[in-house]
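To illustrate the input format used throughout this study, we show a single complete record. The first block contains the structure-token representation of the backbone; no residue identities are included at this stage. The design step must infer an amino acid for every position from geometry alone.
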């Protein structure tokens, strides 16, 4: 009898314990994530005792059984996570930009989307697949603190964009193929000492040099710089008689063999198309920075203000300039040239001064871009090129930038091209 009572006691105590485990009261405002896990909600069908999470020294459940039989042993976030229920009554928050945001909310932090997530007993702002952003505070601040000859700026039109998107859609020059890189530079005969220390095509040939283009979010620098260099040379070589603005959209849309339109293009192929097929004026096929259909029938009827024999503007074969002084001599004689440069992460934030890439940016990805060198100069003993970019006039020095000259900075002196326009007699 005594034994039975004793055993019964144990049995009762054991039962009580079980009941106690399942009915243990917990504060409904308990901050925490249970069914709601960082990689997604854990919700189970029927009754699954293993579908549980520790809470206050016991367990709470995320299975349907808990809801049907005893709400008290469901985890506090069960209805929210598993049954489309209202958000838990408690307001867990994450600090964000001096304020707070509610748990479950997603916010943009520069180019990343981040969610205030429960992690058991705390909340944390977790960013989904964090990307490197085009504008990074770290780069801007360091460049400006270091005083390295140029300043950096946070461009609002680049904010909230990823570096990957910048490389893909703000540049757009495919690396020259090996055989093109072996193209021999032309030889020029001149006295290098006769070259001036400053030269600006815009002031030497006012009205002949093209303006700054905004390529938009389209990797079209291959087409934009090609059309601009040719336009400049038409005006300069014709002594202002054939001032034209040639259409980069024509190249972007129609030069598609081996080219990738807004995903980038090869310069040698662009020049070859220009030479063989010719290009119309901008007014006839205006730039949209999108992939437009190439309507050859329409382009064949574009008015050509300066042409009688042919119906497109053409150029001779592109040639390569081999070194600093050859590039200078070429610009002085016949106008701006096309250069391909390696773009480092810090370049996007360039504001003004003489650019030189910093070692801050060498860890990040780079891309190739083509630009137009319009002149050169010297500032407190530092030699620079003056270069036209194609990111609009809000960027850099009214759309231009200056870059260290004579040191092949960013490879800018290693693949420089020029062409001769095919003028009809005038
Ligand atoms: C959350 O739990 C961890 C252990 O799991 C503990 O180290 C930490 O102090 C707890 N944080 C809070 C805010 O209670
Ligand atoms: C950069 O500019 C954007 C948009 O103007 C602004 O929201 C952001 O806070 C700025 N970032 C920094 C680091 O200054
Ligand atoms: C940032 O970009 C994303 C996607 O590109 C967009 O959904 C979001 O609204 C943008 N945020 C801001 C603050 O501009
Ligand atoms: C560049 O090459 C030319 C020959 O094409 C040569 O006369 C000149 O000295 C070279 N300049 C430099 C800076 O090496």
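Output of the design step:
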């Amino acid at each position: 009898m005594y034994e039975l009572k004793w055993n019964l006691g144990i049995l009762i105590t054991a039962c009580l314990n079980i009941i106690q485990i399942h009915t243990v009261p917990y504060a409904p405002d308990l901050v925490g994530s249970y069914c709601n896990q960082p990689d997604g909600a854990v919700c189970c069908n029927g009754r699954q005792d293993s579908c549980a999470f520790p809470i206050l020294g016991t367990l709470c459940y995320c299975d349907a059984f808990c809801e049907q039989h005893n709400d008290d042993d469901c985890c506090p976030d069960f209805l929210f996570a598993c049954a489309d229920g209202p958000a838990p009554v408690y307001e867990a928050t994450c600090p964000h930009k001096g304020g707070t945001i509610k748990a479950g909310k997603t916010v943009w932090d520069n180019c990343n989307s981040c969610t205030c997530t429960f992690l058991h007993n705390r909340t944390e702002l977790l960013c989904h697949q964090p990307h490197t952003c085009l504008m990074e505070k770290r780069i801007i601040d360091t460049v400006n603190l270091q005083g390295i000859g140029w300043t950096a700026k946070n461009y609002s039109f680049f904010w909230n964009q990823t570096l990957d998107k910048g490389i893909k859609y703000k540049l757009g020059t495919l690396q020259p193929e090996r055989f093109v890189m072996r193209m021999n530079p032309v030889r020029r005969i001149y006295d290098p000492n006769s070259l001036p220390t400053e030269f600006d095509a815009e002031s030497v040939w006012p009205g002949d040099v093209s303006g700054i283009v905004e390529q938009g979010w389209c990797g079209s620098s291959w087409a934009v710089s090609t059309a601009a260099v040719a336009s400049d040379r038409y005006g300069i070589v014709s002594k202002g008689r054939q001032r034209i603005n040639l259409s980069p959209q024509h190249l972007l849309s129609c030069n598609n063999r081996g080219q990738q339109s807004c995903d980038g293009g090869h310069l040698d192929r662009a020049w070859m198309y220009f030479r063989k097929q010719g290009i119309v004026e901008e007014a006839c096929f205006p730039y949209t920075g999108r992939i437009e259909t190439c309507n050859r029938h329409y382009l064949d009827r574009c008015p050509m203000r300066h042409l009688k024999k042919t119906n497109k503007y053409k150029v001779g074969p592109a040639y390569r300039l081999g070194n600093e002084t050859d590039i200078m001599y070429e610009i002085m004689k016949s106008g701006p040239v096309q250069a391909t440069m390696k773009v480092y992460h810090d370049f996007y934030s360039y504001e003004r001064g003489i650019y030189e890439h910093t070692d801050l940016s060498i860890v990040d990805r780079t891309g190739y871009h083509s630009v137009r060198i319009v002149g050169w100069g010297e500032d407190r003993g530092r030699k620079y090129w003056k270069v036209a970019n194609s990111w609009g006039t809000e960027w850099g020095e009214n759309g231009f930038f200056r870059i260290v000259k004579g040191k092949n900075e960013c490879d800018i002196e290693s693949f420089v091209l020029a062409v001769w326009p095919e003028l009809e007699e005038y």
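Structural context for interpreting the output: The longest helix spans residues 2-23. The pocket of 2-acetamido-2-deoxy-beta-D-glucopyranose (ligand 3) is lined by residues 108, 160 (CB under 6 Å).
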